[in-house]
Amino acid sequence: MKIIVTGATGFLGQALCAQLEAQGHMVTPLNSKNCDLTKADSLHALNAEIYDQIYHLAAWTQAGDFCLYHPGEQWVINQQINTNILGWWQAHQPQAKLVSMGTSCAYAPDMELAEENYFVGLPIDSLFTYAMTKRMLHAGQLALHKQYGLRYLTLVPSTLYGPGYHTDGRQMHFIFDLMRKIMRGKVHGEPVVLWGDGHQRRELLFRDDFVRLAVRLALTHDNDLVNIGAGEEFTIRHFAQLICEKVGYDFDDIQFDTTRYVGAKSKCLSIEKLKRLIPDLTFTDLRRGLDQTIDWFWAERDQLLPR
Ligand SMILES: NC(=O)c1ccc[n+]([C@@H]2O[C@H](COP(=O)([O-])OP(=O)(O)OC[C@H]3O[C@@H](n4cnc5c(N)ncnc54)[C@H](OP(=O)(O)O)[C@@H]3O)[C@@H](O)[C@H]2O)c1
Fold first, then answer.
1. Ligand 1 centre from 251 Cα, in Å?
2. Where are the beta strands (DSSP E) in the chain?
3. Running DSSP on this structure, what letter comes out for residue 2?
4. Which of 17, 28, 31 to mutate to test the pocket of ligand 1 (most atoms within 8 A of CB)?
5. Are residues 6 and 37 in contact, defined by beta-carbon separation less than 8 angstroms?
6. Which residue has its alpha carbon closest to ligand 1 atom 30?
7. 253 Cα to the center of ligand 1, angstroms
8. Closest residue (by CA) to atom 23 of ligand 1?
9. Residues 207-252: pLDDT tens digits?
10. pLDDT tier, 31 (very low <50, low <70, confident <90, very high otherwise)
11. Residues enclosing ligand 1, CB less than 6 A?
């Protein structure tokens, strides 16, 4: 198949492109340098090609508190990116299936994180704008399907982890931040201080598991929104314990700062629909996934653990 991947240089995009190419597909990888999707004419050079699938991963965001301080920019930039891809899909690639990425933050924190609730209630305030641009992306796919019969799939990943994360100094998702703190404690002897009491629970999904499931669903399932999560969550203390074992740091030396706000007590996607669609669902064992990620982190220590 001929497949476009936007966001191809990102943490997820790199693994997705590698997997699609390994399966023999012709992949056109796009990023902000070779195709700035905030520009209306950015995709015109590809008008004459005929694509089978478009994976739309591009988004302007970071982890941590980035969204809290950039809501205006995020609204304009992500709406431009999404509107341009949706408009081009309808005008030039109506035969292609558009597979886009949603976010678990789009769910209201007091609702079950199940697909039928994606548009119900309001997302958490600190991630409101980012979450709403993801809801609007899904709404755009629904509208184009309704009027023109275009085929789409919206996939909602839980927090992804694995080797190959960013090393350029941008804010990190919680599990990488946890690794960084514990490894700095080990290497530089710095105190390891984690926010909250460590009993808050979080879900993680190994990036390669997500890619495998996404590629399979993109072939078999149309016109729907599907959560892709691991179906179980663990406390921050549990993640820290596993990292300490691998790194060789004494867990009892970790301090917990309970004055810090850490958000929801628990956050785990419902994967009942995913289980129905993929009955032979399997996931990488958490300990194995963390070991691989820590090995990668250690190999990148010059950038990730500077003194
Ligand atoms: N990582 C997660 O845990 C997670 C969880 C849930 C959902 N998601 C979603 O999955 C998708 C991929 O996530 P990720 O972690 O791989 O993100 P990422 O590493 O931040 O990558 C973002 C990608 O978007 C591209 N991009 C940014 N602005 C662009 C523009 N103006 N024009 C064209 N491309 C642009 C970037 O290109 P450059 O490299 O050129 O900047 C990069 O390839 C995103 O939609 C994200 O919301 C991720």
1. 33
2. 2-6, 26-29, 53-56, 97-101, 152-157, 160-161, 193-195, 201-202, 205-206, 225-228, 234-235, 255-257
3. E
4. 31
5. yes
6. 32
7. 36
8. 7
9. 999 999 999 999 999 999 999 999 999 999 999 999 999 999 999 9
10. very high
11. 6-13, 31-33, 35-38, 57-61, 81, 101, 103, 157, 159-160, 173
Tell me, in angstroms, the distance from the centre of ligand 1 to residue 10's CA.
5
Here the tokens at position 287 are 């300990």
Q: How far does residue 60's CA lie from ligand 1's centre (Å)?
A: 6
Ordered DSSP codes for 138-161 = HHHHHHHHHHH---EEEEEE--EE
Averaged over 46-73, what is the pLDDT?
93
- Token look-up 């963390």 returns 290
pLDDT single digits (tens) 95-138: 999 999 999 999 999 999 999 999 999 999 889 999 999 999 99
Count of helix runs (H) and strand runs (E) in the chain:
10, 12
* pLDDT confidence bin for 68, thresholds 50/70/90: confident
